[in-house]
Design a protein that fits this description.
Elements: E1 18-20, E2 23-25, E3 32-36, E4 43-48, H1 52-71, H2 74-90, H3 92-103, H4 107-125, E5 142-150, E6 153-157, H5 163-176, E7 180-184, H6 191-202, E8 210-212, H7 217-226, E9 232-236, H8 239-252, E10 256-259, E11 265-268, H9 274-286, E12 298-302, H10 306-319, H11 337-352, E13 356-359, E14 376-379, H12 386-389, E15 396-402, H13 405-412, E16 420-424, H14 428-437, E17 442-445, E18 465-466, H15 471-477, E19 479-487
Parallel strand pairs: 6-7, 6-9, 7-8, 9-10, 11-12, 11-16, 12-15, 14-15, 16-17
Antiparallel strand pairs: 1-2, 3-4, 5-19, 10-18, 13-14
Helix pairs in contact: 1-7, 2-4, 2-6, 3-4, 4-5, 5-6, 9-10
The structure holds nicotinamide-adenine-dinucleotide.
């Protein structure tokens, strides 16, 4: 028997149900978990806490729907997704408002995320009927061709930092190529993911093709990864959880995509255009209070301009205004108290070890309730110390000098991560040679995050994970190649 959740008083919020086979339902245990507004620390609503039994029901539903969805013409699949994208664009303000309250994201950043989320629909819906295979010449007696087939039932597990945009980044290509999906949004910010599932059904997605089981990672997330009838996992999140997910997938020899953390460097040569580079580099670390996987958290600067850059970064950060996301200031809050404690712990440890705190380095005064941290710039940093090696996931920038291009590349590559990198120089040879040597899945030259990035494959080296999302490559991640050889009579 299903049980009803207590509906949120605020009707702009989703009801918090699971959606399995197109039907809203409470968790089979009847349990819920609370969702908080990071800006105030106040409870927003409760959401169904999915169980292993719910995940099983969702996987069965996705399995039952798979054949029909796969056989739906690519044109029709694309049309449903295109319609959903238009609906999302029309309801941008509503989604951005919930994202702002759920993830603590300043309004304008939440709006940008919603625009990017709608772009995934625009981009991948157009690809649904253009996913061509190849013919392979074997001479006159054979016809040989390849087909890109959907995996089947995909498990999609997402983090809290860009809840809507990352959900769309994985769900839309997975659905476009004919997979059915069980989606587990992050418990810290699940609301726009739940709204998205309803929107897709309103756009005409058949029941069962997309099922959502909100819940705890250790419960619903783990059950999804452990389920024997899941064909592929797309996981975006932290390294330790990614390692657990991979170990579980190994038991089933199940393919997976891992989009994990980063410690991304900007390499700034002395001849870089200072005025153009500064705002982009600052935005890359302070956007969403540093809670971005590709945050440019290590600023590597050529020695001759190092002091100028430290002063500029300090002045820029000191002017940023932190506060409630609904006020649309420069920085909102961190996602929860544990994250605030973690960020403060990294900075305190760095300070104790002799690092210079140029600005920030503490919880701001006068912002009771929310989980804020000041924009922080650190100099005099040992590049091998924890603050320069580990993902802080907060508004903390380390500025480190380098001698020459060789030294810059050595520093850029000296962490276990390899997600993104920025290279800044007015010399083309320097840019191209440095880009070639940096170990990162995405290298931006004289920019960072071009065009919102929907079209650009993203993914990591090393502990940043493997497989690629975004761009055409995501379609390949959500398919397997089948080769068909016909001998002609
Ligand atoms: P997290 O690893 O704690 O959680 C991610 C998701 O995994 C959540 O939905 C969570 O509920 C689930 N989960 C937790 N334990 C699980 C388990 N045992 N089995 C299955 N699922 C489980 O990460 P987070 O704190 O939500 O997100 C921040 C991290 O995500 C950072 O490291 C950030 O760099 C990374 N990230 C990476 C990218 C990328 O594209 N590479 C993008 C965004 C965020």
């Amino acid at each position: 028997m299903t049980q009803q959740l207590q509906r949120p008083q605020d009707r702009t919020l989703p009801d918090g149900d699971l959606v399995i086979g197109g039907e809203h339902r409470a968790s089979s245990s009847g349990e819920t978990f609370d969702v908080f507004n990071p800006s105030t620390g106040a409870k927003l609503c409760s959401v169904a806490k999915g169980t292993a039994g719910d995940v099983d029901a969702a996987v069965r539903s996705a399995r039952a729907a798979f054949a029909g969805w796969r056989e739906t013409t690519p044109l029709e699949r694309g049309r449903i997704l295109a319609r959903a994208g238009r609906m999302l664009a029309e309801r941008q303000a509503e989604f951005a408002d919930v994202e702002c309250r759920d993830a603590g994201k300043p309004k304008r950043q939440a709006v940008v995320d919603t625009v990017v989320a709608a772009r995934y629909f625009e981009y991948y819906s157009g690809y649904a009927d253009k996913l061509h295979g190849r013919t392979i010449p074997l001479g006159p007696d054979f016809l040989d061709y390849t087909v890109l087939e959907p995996h089947g039932v995909c498990g999609v597990i997402t983090p809290w930092n860009y809840p809507l945009a990352i959900a769309c980044r994985s769900l839309v290509p997975a659905l476009a190529v004919g997979n059915s999906v069980v989606f587990k949004p992050a418990e810290d910010a699940p609301l726009t993911g739940l709204m998205l599932v309803d929107l897709l059904h309103e756009a005409g997605l058949p029941a069962g093709v997309l099922n959502v089981v909100p819940g705890l990672g250790t419960e619903a997330g783990a059950a999804l990864v452990e389920h024997p009838d899941v064909d592929h996992i797309s996981f975006t999140g932290s390294v330790p959880v990614g390692q657990r997910v991979m170990a579980e997938c190994a038991k089933h020899l199940r393919p997976l995509t891992l989009e994990l953390g980063g410690k991304s460097p900007h390499i700034v040569f002395a001849d870089a255009d200072f005025d153009k580079a500064l705002p982009v580099i600052m935005n890359s670390i302070f956007q969403h209070a540093g809670q971005t996987c590709t945050a440019g958290s290590r600023l590597l600067v050529q020695e001759s301009v190092y002091d100028k850059w430290v002063a500029a970064a300090k002045a820029h950060a000191a002017k940023l205004v932190v506060g409630d996301a609904s006020e649309d200031l420069d920085l909102g809050a961190l996602i929860n108290e544990a994250q605030q404690t973690r960020v403060a712990g990294f900075v305190d440890q760095a300070r104790e070890s002799g690092v210079t705190v140029e600005t920030g380095g503490r919880r701001p005064d006068g912002l009771a309730g929310g989980w804020y941290y000041e924009p922080t710039v650190l100099s005099n940093v040992d590049p091998l110390s924890p603050i320069a090696q580990e993902e802080v996931f907060g508004p903390v920038l380390t500025v480190i000098p380098f001698r020459d291009a060789e030294h810059a590349v050595e520093l850029a590559n000296c962490t276990e991560y390899g997600l993104a990198a920025g290279v800044w120089s007015s010399d083309v040879d320097t840019c191209v040679r440095t880009a070639a040597q940096v170990r990162a899945g995405q290298v931006y030259v004289n920019n960072f995050g071009a065009g919102g990035g929907v079209e650009l494959p993203t993914g990591g080296f090393g502990k940043s994970g493997f497989g690629r999302e975004k761009g055409l490559e995501a379609l390949l991640s959500f398919t397997s190649v089948k080769n068909v050889s016909l001998r002609l009579g």
